Amino acid sequence: MEPVPVTVIGGYLGAGKTTLVNHLLRQRTGQRIAVLVNDFGDLPIDDALIEAREGNLLRLAGGCVCCSFGSDLLDALRQLRALTPAPRHVLLECSGVALPAAVARTLTLLPGLTLDAVLVLVDAETVRKHAADRYVGDLVHQQLAEADLIALNKCDLADEAALAELQSWLGQLAPRARQLTCRHGRLDPALLLDTGLAEAHAASRSTGLALRVPPAADTLFDSLSLEFEHAVDPARLAAALTDPSLPLLRAKGLLRDAAGNWCALQLVGRRSTIGPLANPPASPRLVCIAGRDALDVARIRALLASCSG
Q1: Is residue 46's pLDDT more than 80?
Q2: Whether the Cβ atoms of residue 143 and residue 212 lie closer than 8 Å to each other
Q3: What pLDDT is recorded for position 217?
Q4: Of 176, 188, 240, 249, which residue is most buried, by most CB within 10 angstroms?
Q5: Closest among 132, 133, 127 to 155, alpha carbons compared
Q6: What's the pLDDT score for residue 209?
Q7: Domain formed by 220-306, architecture
Protein backbone atom coordinates (compact mmCIF):
# COMPACT_ATOMS: atom_id res chain seq x y z
CA MET A 1 0.00 0.00 0.00
CA GLU A 2 1.36 3.40 -0.95
CA PRO A 3 2.06 5.72 2.00
CA VAL A 4 -0.33 8.64 2.43
CA PRO A 5 1.38 12.01 1.82
CA VAL A 6 1.07 14.64 4.55
CA THR A 7 1.39 18.39 4.16
CA VAL A 8 2.20 20.13 7.44
CA ILE A 9 0.80 23.67 7.45
CA GLY A 10 2.42 26.18 9.78
CA GLY A 11 2.71 29.92 10.18
CA TYR A 12 2.35 32.52 12.90
CA LEU A 13 -0.98 33.49 14.47
CA GLY A 14 -3.41 34.98 11.95
CA ALA A 15 -1.42 34.17 8.81
CA GLY A 16 -4.45 32.50 7.20
CA LYS A 17 -3.84 28.77 7.72
CA THR A 18 -7.48 27.83 8.26
CA THR A 19 -8.63 29.98 5.34
CA LEU A 20 -6.20 28.09 3.12
CA VAL A 21 -7.37 24.70 4.43
CA ASN A 22 -11.00 25.55 3.70
CA HIS A 23 -10.05 26.69 0.19
CA LEU A 24 -8.20 23.43 -0.48
CA LEU A 25 -11.19 21.42 0.70
CA ARG A 26 -13.50 23.34 -1.62
CA GLN A 27 -11.09 22.86 -4.54
CA ARG A 28 -10.08 19.26 -3.81
CA THR A 29 -11.06 17.97 -7.31
CA GLY A 30 -12.42 14.66 -6.05
CA GLN A 31 -9.56 13.79 -3.70
CA ARG A 32 -10.39 12.40 -0.26
CA ILE A 33 -8.55 14.77 2.06
CA ALA A 34 -8.19 14.36 5.82
CA VAL A 35 -7.54 17.43 7.96
CA LEU A 36 -5.99 17.45 11.42
CA VAL A 37 -6.24 20.71 13.36
CA ASN A 38 -4.54 21.78 16.56
CA ASP A 39 -5.98 25.16 17.42
CA PHE A 40 -8.28 26.83 19.89
CA GLY A 41 -12.06 26.80 19.57
CA ASP A 42 -14.24 24.47 17.57
CA LEU A 43 -12.97 22.79 14.43
CA PRO A 44 -12.67 25.76 12.07
CA ILE A 45 -14.09 24.20 8.91
CA ASP A 46 -16.63 26.03 6.75
CA ASP A 47 -20.13 24.94 7.68
CA ALA A 48 -21.03 24.47 4.01
CA LEU A 49 -18.48 21.63 3.82
CA ILE A 50 -19.77 19.71 6.85
CA GLU A 51 -22.12 16.79 6.26
CA ALA A 52 -22.10 15.20 9.72
CA ARG A 53 -20.55 15.48 13.17
CA GLU A 54 -19.43 12.47 15.18
CA GLY A 55 -17.96 13.67 18.45
CA ASN A 56 -14.86 15.63 17.51
CA LEU A 57 -14.84 14.24 13.96
CA LEU A 58 -16.37 16.12 11.05
CA ARG A 59 -17.42 14.24 7.96
CA LEU A 60 -17.11 16.53 4.99
CA ALA A 61 -18.33 16.55 1.43
CA GLY A 62 -16.59 14.22 -1.02
CA GLY A 63 -15.36 11.69 1.54
CA CYS A 64 -13.14 14.16 3.39
CA VAL A 65 -12.86 14.20 7.18
CA CYS A 66 -11.55 16.60 9.82
CA CYS A 67 -10.70 16.19 13.48
CA SER A 68 -8.66 17.98 16.14
CA PHE A 69 -5.69 16.29 17.76
CA GLY A 70 -5.04 18.47 20.80
CA SER A 71 -2.08 16.94 22.61
CA ASP A 72 -2.36 13.46 21.05
CA LEU A 73 -1.19 13.78 17.47
CA LEU A 74 0.00 10.18 17.19
CA ASP A 75 -3.39 8.76 18.14
CA ALA A 76 -5.19 11.04 15.67
CA LEU A 77 -2.79 10.01 12.90
CA ARG A 78 -3.36 6.33 13.68
CA GLN A 79 -7.13 6.83 13.46
CA LEU A 80 -6.85 8.59 10.11
CA ARG A 81 -4.52 5.93 8.75
CA ALA A 82 -7.05 3.25 9.72
CA LEU A 83 -9.91 4.84 7.75
CA THR A 84 -11.38 2.80 4.89
CA PRO A 85 -10.92 3.96 2.26
CA ALA A 86 -7.73 5.72 3.28
CA PRO A 87 -7.48 9.46 2.63
CA ARG A 88 -5.62 10.49 -0.50
CA HIS A 89 -3.80 13.30 1.30
CA VAL A 90 -3.56 14.60 4.87
CA LEU A 91 -3.39 18.30 5.79
CA LEU A 92 -1.97 18.81 9.27
CA GLU A 93 -2.65 22.35 10.45
CA CYS A 94 -0.38 23.40 13.32
CA SER A 95 -1.05 25.97 15.97
CA GLY A 96 0.27 29.42 15.11
CA VAL A 97 2.87 29.08 17.88
CA ALA A 98 4.11 25.62 16.86
CA LEU A 99 7.28 24.68 15.00
CA PRO A 100 6.01 22.79 11.93
CA ALA A 101 9.20 20.77 11.44
CA ALA A 102 8.88 19.40 14.98
CA VAL A 103 5.33 18.32 14.16
CA ALA A 104 6.52 16.82 10.87
CA ARG A 105 9.05 14.64 12.68
CA THR A 106 6.16 12.86 14.37
CA LEU A 107 5.33 11.29 11.01
CA THR A 108 8.51 9.22 11.16
CA LEU A 109 7.04 7.32 14.11
CA LEU A 110 4.16 5.88 12.08
CA PRO A 111 4.29 3.59 9.04
CA GLY A 112 2.05 4.38 6.10
CA LEU A 113 2.54 8.16 6.21
CA THR A 114 5.13 10.28 4.46
CA LEU A 115 5.92 13.99 4.63
CA ASP A 116 5.17 15.72 1.34
CA ALA A 117 6.06 19.27 2.37
CA VAL A 118 6.17 21.78 5.19
CA LEU A 119 4.05 24.72 4.04
CA VAL A 120 4.37 27.97 6.00
CA LEU A 121 1.88 30.79 5.52
CA VAL A 122 3.08 34.37 5.89
CA ASP A 123 1.01 37.48 6.57
CA ALA A 124 2.45 40.00 4.12
CA GLU A 125 1.33 42.90 6.29
CA THR A 126 2.77 41.85 9.66
CA VAL A 127 5.51 39.23 9.24
CA ARG A 128 8.43 41.68 9.37
CA LYS A 129 7.06 43.22 12.55
CA HIS A 130 6.64 39.82 14.23
CA ALA A 131 10.06 38.65 13.04
CA ALA A 132 11.66 41.69 14.72
CA ASP A 133 9.76 41.21 17.98
CA ARG A 134 12.07 40.45 20.91
CA TYR A 135 9.72 37.79 22.26
CA VAL A 136 8.36 35.95 19.20
CA GLY A 137 10.99 36.82 16.58
CA ASP A 138 12.94 33.58 17.06
CA LEU A 139 9.75 31.57 16.67
CA VAL A 140 8.83 33.32 13.41
CA HIS A 141 12.36 32.94 12.02
CA GLN A 142 12.40 29.24 12.88
CA GLN A 143 9.02 28.62 11.25
CA LEU A 144 10.25 30.24 8.03
CA ALA A 145 13.59 28.42 8.04
CA GLU A 146 11.74 25.07 8.21
CA ALA A 147 9.57 25.71 5.15
CA ASP A 148 9.65 23.78 1.90
CA LEU A 149 6.91 26.08 0.60
CA ILE A 150 6.10 29.63 1.67
CA ALA A 151 2.67 31.03 0.80
CA LEU A 152 2.86 34.80 1.05
CA ASN A 153 -0.74 35.59 1.94
CA LYS A 154 -2.71 38.85 2.17
CA CYS A 155 -0.69 40.34 -0.68
CA ASP A 156 -3.47 42.87 -1.23
CA LEU A 157 -2.32 44.56 2.00
CA ALA A 158 1.16 45.38 0.63
CA ASP A 159 2.11 47.53 -2.34
CA GLU A 160 4.26 46.19 -5.19
CA ALA A 161 7.56 47.58 -3.90
CA ALA A 162 6.98 46.33 -0.36
CA LEU A 163 6.00 42.92 -1.71
CA ALA A 164 9.18 42.63 -3.78
CA GLU A 165 11.31 43.61 -0.79
CA LEU A 166 9.46 41.08 1.38
CA GLN A 167 10.06 38.29 -1.13
CA SER A 168 13.78 39.11 -1.19
CA TRP A 169 13.90 39.05 2.62
CA LEU A 170 12.10 35.70 2.73
CA GLY A 171 14.52 34.31 0.16
CA GLN A 172 17.42 35.12 2.47
CA LEU A 173 15.75 33.56 5.51
CA ALA A 174 14.49 30.46 3.70
CA PRO A 175 16.63 29.99 0.59
CA ARG A 176 15.43 26.49 -0.21
CA ALA A 177 11.71 27.31 0.06
CA ARG A 178 9.56 27.78 -3.02
CA GLN A 179 7.57 31.03 -2.73
CA LEU A 180 3.97 31.55 -3.80
CA THR A 181 1.80 34.65 -3.44
CA CYS A 182 -1.93 34.74 -2.78
CA ARG A 183 -4.89 36.60 -1.35
CA HIS A 184 -7.29 35.01 1.12
CA GLY A 185 -5.37 31.74 0.92
CA ARG A 186 -6.53 31.07 -2.63
CA LEU A 187 -3.95 28.84 -4.26
CA ASP A 188 -4.29 26.05 -6.79
CA PRO A 189 -4.11 22.71 -4.89
CA ALA A 190 -1.80 21.42 -7.63
CA LEU A 191 0.84 23.88 -6.38
CA LEU A 192 0.61 22.65 -2.78
CA LEU A 193 -0.20 18.93 -2.80
CA ASP A 194 1.97 16.02 -3.98
CA THR A 195 4.98 18.31 -4.44
CA GLY A 196 7.64 15.90 -3.17
CA LEU A 197 9.54 18.89 -1.80
CA ALA A 198 10.25 17.34 1.60
CA GLU A 199 12.20 14.51 0.00
CA ALA A 200 13.99 16.91 -2.34
CA HIS A 201 15.05 19.06 0.62
CA ALA A 202 15.91 16.22 2.99
CA ALA A 203 19.68 16.76 2.81
CA SER A 204 19.54 20.53 3.25
CA ARG A 205 17.02 20.17 6.07
CA SER A 206 19.57 18.29 8.15
CA THR A 207 22.52 20.54 7.28
CA GLY A 208 20.80 23.94 7.25
CA LEU A 209 21.65 26.89 9.42
CA ALA A 210 20.89 26.16 13.08
CA LEU A 211 18.81 28.84 14.75
CA ARG A 212 18.19 29.36 18.42
CA VAL A 213 15.36 27.22 19.68
CA PRO A 214 12.55 29.62 20.60
CA PRO A 215 11.03 29.50 24.06
CA ALA A 216 7.99 27.32 24.68
CA ALA A 217 4.68 28.88 23.64
CA ASP A 218 3.37 29.10 27.20
CA THR A 219 6.28 31.36 28.10
CA LEU A 220 5.46 33.74 25.24
CA PHE A 221 1.66 33.90 25.24
CA ASP A 222 -1.32 33.97 27.57
CA SER A 223 -4.79 32.81 26.57
CA LEU A 224 -8.27 33.22 27.98
CA SER A 225 -11.24 30.97 27.21
CA LEU A 226 -14.73 32.06 28.25
CA GLU A 227 -18.11 30.36 27.99
CA PHE A 228 -21.26 32.39 28.67
CA GLU A 229 -24.99 32.34 28.05
CA HIS A 230 -25.97 35.89 27.10
CA ALA A 231 -26.45 37.30 23.61
CA VAL A 232 -23.78 39.63 22.21
CA ASP A 233 -23.66 42.44 19.67
CA PRO A 234 -20.84 41.01 17.49
CA ALA A 235 -19.97 44.31 15.78
CA ARG A 236 -19.62 46.12 19.12
CA LEU A 237 -17.52 43.31 20.54
CA ALA A 238 -15.26 43.28 17.47
CA ALA A 239 -14.69 47.03 17.77
CA ALA A 240 -13.93 46.69 21.47
CA LEU A 241 -11.48 43.81 21.08
CA THR A 242 -9.55 45.47 18.25
CA ASP A 243 -8.93 48.62 20.30
CA PRO A 244 -5.15 49.28 20.17
CA SER A 245 -5.05 49.70 23.92
CA LEU A 246 -6.07 46.04 24.27
CA PRO A 247 -3.13 44.31 22.54
CA LEU A 248 -4.76 41.06 21.48
CA LEU A 249 -2.89 39.02 18.89
CA ARG A 250 -5.74 36.66 18.05
CA ALA A 251 -9.32 36.01 19.15
CA LYS A 252 -12.17 33.78 18.08
CA GLY A 253 -15.77 34.08 19.22
CA LEU A 254 -18.71 31.77 18.56
CA LEU A 255 -21.53 34.14 19.40
CA ARG A 256 -25.32 34.47 19.47
CA ASP A 257 -26.88 37.88 18.83
CA ALA A 258 -30.08 39.34 20.28
CA ALA A 259 -32.15 37.85 17.45
CA GLY A 260 -30.83 34.36 18.20
CA ASN A 261 -28.56 34.22 15.15
CA TRP A 262 -25.16 32.58 15.55
CA CYS A 263 -21.96 34.00 14.07
CA ALA A 264 -18.21 33.47 14.16
CA LEU A 265 -15.97 36.41 15.07
CA GLN A 266 -12.35 36.16 13.92
CA LEU A 267 -9.79 38.71 15.05
CA VAL A 268 -6.16 39.12 14.02
CA GLY A 269 -4.49 42.18 15.51
CA ARG A 270 -6.52 45.22 14.51
CA ARG A 271 -8.56 43.40 11.85
CA SER A 272 -11.74 41.43 12.39
CA THR A 273 -14.35 39.53 10.38
CA ILE A 274 -17.83 38.33 11.28
CA GLY A 275 -19.54 35.48 9.45
CA PRO A 276 -22.49 33.11 9.87
CA LEU A 277 -22.21 29.95 11.96
CA ALA A 278 -24.54 27.14 10.92
CA ASN A 279 -23.42 24.56 13.51
CA PRO A 280 -23.17 26.38 16.85
CA PRO A 281 -21.71 24.95 20.06
CA ALA A 282 -23.77 24.25 23.18
CA SER A 283 -23.10 27.76 24.48
CA PRO A 284 -21.38 30.92 23.20
CA ARG A 285 -17.64 31.17 23.77
CA LEU A 286 -14.73 33.52 23.29
CA VAL A 287 -11.01 32.71 23.16
CA CYS A 288 -8.34 35.44 23.27
CA ILE A 289 -4.55 35.26 22.90
CA ALA A 290 -2.07 37.98 23.82
CA GLY A 291 1.62 38.25 24.59
CA ARG A 292 2.81 37.08 27.97
CA ASP A 293 1.49 39.33 30.78
CA ALA A 294 -0.39 41.51 28.24
CA LEU A 295 -3.79 39.82 28.63
CA ASP A 296 -6.16 42.07 30.59
CA VAL A 297 -8.64 39.43 31.76
CA ALA A 298 -10.80 41.77 33.84
CA ARG A 299 -11.16 44.23 30.97
CA ILE A 300 -12.07 41.52 28.45
CA ARG A 301 -14.73 40.18 30.80
CA ALA A 302 -16.10 43.71 31.27
CA LEU A 303 -16.13 44.35 27.51
CA LEU A 304 -17.96 41.11 26.89
CA ALA A 305 -20.59 42.06 29.44
CA SER A 306 -20.93 45.59 28.04
CA CYS A 307 -21.52 44.23 24.52
CA SER A 308 -24.39 41.96 25.57
CA GLY A 309 -27.26 42.14 23.12
Answers
A1: no
A2: no
A3: 56
A4: 249
A5: 127
A6: 43
A7: 2-Layer Sandwich (3.30)
